[in-house]
Amino acid sequence: MALTLFTRRPAPAEPPTVRPETWPEIGETWKPEGVTIAQRYYNQAHAVVLVYTADDGKTGTYYAVACLGCHFASAQSGRRTYNMRYGLEDAAKVANEHATTCRALPRDIPARPADDTVRERLHAWVIGARRRNEDIQLRLSDLALIRLTLQRTNDWIAGVLQQLAVDQPEILRTDREYGDYVCYYARRLPEN
Predict the structure, then answer these.
(1) CA 163/CA 115 separation, integer angstroms
(2) Cα-flanking dihedrals φ and ψ of residue 99, to 5°?
(3) What DSSP line would sit under 60-117, residue for residue?
């Protein structure tokens, strides 16, 4: 017993400084132009699931959900009858549900496309919306699911659509309603 009292023991080691594991750069610092990221969730493989909005709040703020690991994207619920677009609480619930089941690995952050590429995508979007029997109203909020790949502001997109209406009035027309509010309409397809 006397030996144990006077034996030399090494000084206790300081506990290692525990640093939280850093999350992937994807989603942490990326702030795509034209959208506001409200929340981030991480799936089982640490891919980011974003809750974001591109609305300016004039008619309410609505949110969309997109996974940067897989190709999941959602902007509306099919469960409601009156307003199918997500509020923040509903979008957060959808993002969390997706994050708990998704096992996709993180992908690279979508690169910001060139202006001409975005113009072509918007032009294709307008052409794809055209129908045979009527003009179809187009809203900027209808672009919610592709806003992360467009990476442009509402004003920039509105400018492109207005220029398209001037250059090709047989495809797109604009009407002013409620003062300064501009409505866009994809023209009906020709009869032949």
Answers:
(1) 14
(2) -60, -35
(3) B--BEEEESSSS-EE-B-TT-SS--BB-HHHHHHHHHHHHHH--PPP-PPPPPPPHHH
- Per residue in 45-69, pLDDT (tens digit) is 989 999 999 876 666 789 999 999 9
**Listed residue (30, 33, 31, 94) closest to 62, CA to CA:** 94
- Distance, CA of 85 to CA of 83 (rounded, Å): 6
Instruction: Quote the CA–CA distance of 51 and 154 in Å, as a whole number.
Output: 18
- Give the residue from 184, 155, 180 showing the smallest Cα distance to 169: 184
C-alpha closest to that of 148 among 173, 182, 174, 111: 111
Give the model's pLDDT for residue 8: 63
What phi, psi does 156 have (nearest 5°)? Answer: -65, -45
Is the whole model's pTM more than 0.85, yes or no?
no
